[in-house]
């Protein structure tokens, strides 16, 4: 078995390029006797002579010429491996698998990801849209590195949660609805309407906030339809299947069939939160950098 190390390869390349032990000793800050011993051991390991030694220095043998090409390549690959490991270790190279809820694409991600991409060009983002429940599960299973989710969530054990931005609940009404032209309405004015609600099982957080807001207003909403994605809910409202309570950021979506109206109820203001979630103890350095960048950007935008 051939046994030599990167230090010996480095010595060999230095001697070959300098043409003498003295020159290599100066460039490597290594004593000549130590270089001589290093090369003897390398030649013993290979079973061939790499240098022809003379009074004026050393010259490469044919075997040495061939070995020099591969030695340089090996040292280059070793340096690349070192750099890759270092960059991954400090979170500046590799990939981040990021889950996100649909409403994050309207403001939060477009406002924050470009800065992160520009700052860390060697980090590749792999994005997956999903519901908070699914994203949290995938983070726990190690299938996602982090997620932008809706909070609160029932179980945050083992997770690090960083709040990013808050939002209001607004009413989504068919454009033909008598209240659709108003600038602001009270929830009680929708008490007799059929509601299109977020799924109780797949989007329990948003569903609970909407239902609790209705209860605070003195009524239990009549749920006519359920859906998972906010845009689906908006589409169902536009189809005349009911009214809905959705995050205010969805109002950035324009539709001729739907109008978004603010709610005067205090319970509807700042009641929704988008948060960053990742493993508490084993989050990657890259995920921590992503969280920090997004949180700092959100804070600056809120000022």
UniProtKB/TrEMBL annotation:
Record family assignment: Belongs to the LysR transcriptional regulatory family.
Pfam families named in the record: HTH_1, LysR_substrate
GO CC annotations on file: protein-DNA complex
Keywords: DNA-binding, Transcription, Transcription regulation
Origin species: Ralstonia insidiosa
Tagged with keyword Transferase: no
Stored SUPFAM superfamilies: Periplasmic binding protein-like II (SSF53850), Winged helix' DNA-binding domain (SSF46785)
InterPro entries recorded: LysR_HTH_N, LysR_subst-bd, WH-like_DNA-bd_sf, WH_DNA-bd_sf
Record's protein name: LysR family transcriptional regulator
GO molecular function: DNA binding; DNA-binding transcription factor activity
């Amino acid at each position: 078995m051939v046994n030599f190390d990167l230090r010996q390869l480095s010595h060999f390349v230095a001697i070959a390029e300098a043409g003498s032990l003295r020159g290599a000793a100066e460039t490597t800050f290594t004593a000549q006797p130590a270089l001589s011993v290093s090369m003897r051991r390398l030649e013993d390991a290979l079973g061939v002579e790499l240098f022809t030694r003379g009074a004026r220095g050393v010259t490469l043998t044919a075997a040495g010429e061939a070995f020099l090409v591969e030695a340089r390549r090996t040292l280059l690959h070793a340096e690349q491996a070192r750099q890759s490991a270092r960059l991954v270790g400090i979170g500046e190279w590799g990939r981040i698998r990021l889950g996100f809820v649909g409403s994050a694409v309207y403001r939060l991600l477009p406002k924050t990801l470009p800065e992160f991409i520009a700052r860390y060009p060697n980090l590749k983002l792999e994005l997956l849209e999903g519901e908070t429940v699914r994203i949290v599960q995938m983070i726990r299973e190690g299938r996602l590195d982090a997620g932008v989710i809706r909070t609160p969530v029932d179980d945050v054990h083992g997770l690090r949660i960083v709040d990013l931005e808050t939002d209001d609940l607004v009413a989504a009404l068919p454009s033909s609805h008598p209240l659709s032209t108003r600038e602001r309405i009270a929830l009680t004015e929708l008490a007799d309407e059929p509601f299109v609600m977020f799924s109780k099982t797949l989007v329990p957080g948003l569903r609970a906030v909407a239902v609790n807001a209705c209860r605070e207003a003195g009524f239990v909403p009549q749920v006519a339809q359920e859906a998972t994605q906010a845009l689906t809910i908006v589409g169902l409202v536009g189809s005349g299947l009911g009214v809905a309570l959705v995050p205010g950021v969805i109002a950035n979506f324009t539709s001729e069939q739907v109008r978004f109206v603010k709610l005067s109820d205090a319970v509807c203001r700042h009641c929704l939160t988008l948060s960053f979630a990742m493993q508490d103890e084993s989050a990657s350095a890259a995920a921590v950098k992503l969280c920090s960048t997004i949180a700092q950007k959100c804070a600056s935008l809120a000022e």
